[in-house]
Amino acid sequence: MNLDKVNEFIKNSIIQKNIYRPLYHFSPSIGWCNDPHGIIYFNDEYHTYFQYYPFLNEEFKMHWGHVTTKDFVHFSNLSSVIIPSESYDNKACWSGSVFVKDELIYLYYTSVTTNDKNENIQTISLATSADGINFEKYKNNPIITPNMCENITNNIDFRDPCIFQKDGKYYIVIGSKNKNNEGLLLLFESENLYDFKFNKILLNDKALGSMYECPNFVFDNEDVFLIASCIDLKQRNNDFLNNASSVCCKINNDFVEKGIKIESLKEIDHGLEFYAPNIYNDHKIMVAWNQMWGRNFYLQQTDSQYINNFVLFRNYFKENNSLIFKPLKMYDSFFKVRMNKELSLKKEKVTFNNTRVSKISINLKNPKDKAIEFHILKDKNEFVKLDLDFKNNLATIDRSNNEIQLKGVEQNSSSNGTRYLTLNKGENYSLEIYIDNSAIEIFLNNYKDSISLLSFSKGDGFEIIPKQDIDLSIQIADFDSAK
């Protein structure tokens, strides 16, 4: 099928109602989406590119999807911008990144084909566009191949090109593996964005797992941070319990010359569904896939018309040796405050209804040595439990009470829908909970931490269950798509 027929199919599809579809988180109108891998501001609007497949069938040859937005709530009509069409990418067009120079968009992607052993052969290819929608694949594709790396790679894992400019040169970083299947980050350089040559191994560190997917860099004055999604990262206390973990690493700012030295390491999100964060440095924006490999995909199992969504688009801010991520301020204008209350609770349960698409802000007054539970998307015996135990400085998220279970491959509590997070101490404690039909995002520790997950419950209730007497304030704001 050619690109025009793909987009005609998307355009002519009748969108069906689905009680689980988020209203203010991005989801494709039809089809499957996963990794976001290109946010740019171009021609007075934001363009977002992502892994996409419009047809719900077994073939699953990945495309690049595209939408535009001005406010990150309302998005343009969905389209495919590149599809598998050439001998070097006839299996799939996987993740990559975009770059703008002289009013031209350069789209670097992982081009996938198969060899005579039916193994995926991954190379890096290029397409360009003057409008962000109509792309032309470069005649000399692929532009980077494993055989350019001095026999370093295993020739199978070679993907997710990240393009950036530094000190007048263009660089691409690629996630790969060596002959022993140990993770690598490889650096390539160019003078012109078309012709690249191998520079060096930037990183080969077993502490970051067996593969570094979707590498991104944050450049903040003299500070540099590596954002990566790491497979098989070893569990550390309450960190890295998922099958794969998205991390923020502070690194040396001379990494191009000397390779990467990790100065600090942090898991970006302690939820059950968060992967492949993508960075747009010019406007300090991050977005990620609200899903996790190794889970059962409920929407796919039930033949939903759409499958998967993104987390909220977030701004990043530097704090000490790490980054914190806050939902974009522009989301605030879409929430209308329904209720603002001061409560003095004495171990009694308090219930609020109609919270299925809302933002709930809570401030706990002097919760030291106390514990409190919140039940989200409550429906009879179904709910997601958020437990805050300030005596033991531990937050627990648990969705095991849901009828629809999203099991994982992990050999720990994450497989059954439970994760943990260390709480910061303080006289008062604030948190924000964004609820959007099936998407839940919780921000804690003054935005230092977040918990992103999915819940396929039909409930709309929100309950507060204090374990001791406690004072708090609560604000419930309902989403309204009309500004």
Description:
It is a single chain. With 483 residues, the protein is mostly beta strands. The chain has two domains: 3-327, Tachylectin-2, Chain A; 335-479, Jelly Rolls. The protein is 4% helix and 52% strand. The protein has three helices and 33 strands. The chain has helices spanning 3-12, 255-258, 298-301, and strands at 31-42, 45-53, 63-69, 79-82, 92-101, 104-114, 120-129, 136-137, 153-166, 169-178, 183-190, 196-203, 211-220, 223-231, 244-251, 262-267, 275-280, 285-289, 306-307, 314-319, 322-327, 335-346, 350-352, 357-365, 371-379, 382-389, 394-398, 418-422, 428-436, 439-444, 449-454, 461-466, 469-479. A six-stranded antiparallel beta sheet has the order 22-33-24-29-30-31, with no helix packed on it. The model has no long low-confidence stretch (mean pLDDT 95).
